[in-house]
Write a sequence for this structure.
């Protein structure tokens, strides 16, 4: 190979690697020490290519309050990406959607619905919604996951 071509190929490889690294999303996850389903949601994020920074907290109420998570939207763990909260067992599809919605303070799956990511223990799935909270305080339904009676494992 011509030396100039070889350098060009190397540059392409390096740039390609950098672009790939930029697609890895980093998320901070705050949780109580003994929260099993929180750990399962973290494992789900890692399986989907997220870089997770895990924070064990003494006072989750204070964490949620600081990020603007309304009590009606509350769940167990609270994730944070670039200042936006990801409350509870939110699927990856809506986390990616949040990246395109700077008008939202964050998103949430309130409660702990059976069959949501990290709450998937082979039982029937409860219907649940992913709610976005706008910076003006309005709830917006971002996704509806219907109930599924068939056990999934
Ligand atoms: Cu949970």
């Amino acid at each position: 190979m011509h030396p100039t071509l070889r350098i060009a190929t190397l540059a392409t490889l390096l740039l390609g690697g950098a672009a790939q690294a930029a697609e890895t999303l980093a998320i901070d996850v705050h949780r109580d020490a003994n929260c099993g389903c929180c750990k399962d949601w973290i494992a789900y994020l890692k399986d989907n290519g997220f870089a997770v920074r895990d924070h064990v907290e003494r006072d989750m109420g204070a964490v949620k309050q600081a990020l603007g998570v309304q009590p009606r939207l509350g769940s167990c763990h609270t994730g944070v990406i670039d200042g936006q909260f990801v409350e509870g067992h939110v699927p990856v599809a809506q986390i990616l959607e949040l990246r395109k919605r700077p008008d939202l303070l964050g998103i949430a799956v309130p409660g702990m619905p059976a069959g949501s990511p990290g709450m998937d223990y082979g039982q029937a799935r409860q219907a649940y919604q992913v709610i976005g909270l706008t910076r003006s305080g309005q709830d917006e339904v971002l996704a509806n996951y219907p109930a599924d009676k068939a056990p999934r494992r």
Observations:
- Confidence is low (pLDDT under 50) at residues 17-22.
